[in-house]
Amino acid sequence: MVPTIRTDHTRPVAEVLGHLLDLGHRRIARVSGPTPLLHTQARTAALLEGCTAASIKPTIVEGDYSEEAGAKLTAALLRQPEPPTAILYDNDVMAVAGLAAAAELDIAVPDQLSLVAWDDSTLCRLASPALTTMSVDVHEFGLTVAESVLERIDGVPVTPRWSPTARYIPRGTTAPPPIQASSTRGPR
After folding, report:
1. Taking a C-beta distance cutoff of 8 angstroms, is the pair 34, 28 a contact?
2. Nearest to 174 by CA among 19, 43, 28, 70
3. Where are the beta strands (DSSP E) in 26-157?
4. What contacts 24+ positions apart, CB below 8 Å, involve 47-54?
């Protein structure tokens, strides 16, 4: 059996969705990573389940983790007749590009649009405004991987492990949606 370190994507997606719903967002979009990836599938399933429970239908578009995908997909979402008031991104690069795309369309973040990145890199903290993120303790994750590698090298059974769970880090890109989102925003 190949040693693995499992990751819970369900709880973090439920957590971020709960924060957005508590703020009042009901038009939520997600710019995912490639659909064949298991973590993309897990995050999509968790978002769909949470949105169904909240009686809302999210918009999900597939990206490829690139800056180009983040900018292009965000602009397309924001040009819809009923654009989202919140967008979740599967990585930091697409989220920073999405922030720039919103600025190009003259859509104020967070006053008119909330953004959340998965991955809490320096890029997220240096963006203006700093991006709200789902953050994983990468140091703890590295220690977990190292423990499994050392057990494998020692020839002993590798203990099943879980990676640290991502947690919501609020920053400057999340706020309640505008009161009349559909009439205050649109294509520009």
Report:
1. no
2. 19
3. 28-32, 59-62, 86-89, 114-118, 132-135
4. 47/13, 47/17, 47/88, 50/13, 50/14, 50/17, 50/18, 51/17, 54/17, 54/21, 54/26
Residue 56 to residue 165: CA distance in whole angstroms:
26
Instruction: Kindly report, residue by residue over 137-158, the tens digit of the pLDDT.
Output: 777 878 878 888 888 888 888 8
Helix (H) or strand (E) holding 162: strand 161-162
- C-alpha–C-alpha distance, residues 174 and 145, integer Å: 33
3-state secondary structure of 90: coil
Residue in the structure block whose two tokens are 């009042």 = 24
Q: What is the pTM of this model?
A: 0.86
Strand partners, 88: 30, 116
How do residues 44-101 score in pLDDT, each as one tens digit?
999 999 999 999 999 999 999 999 999 999 999 999 999 999 999 999 999 999 999 9
Residue-range domains of the chain with CATH: 5-136+165-176 (3.40.50.2300)
* Beta-sheet pairing, 167-169 with 132-135: antiparallel
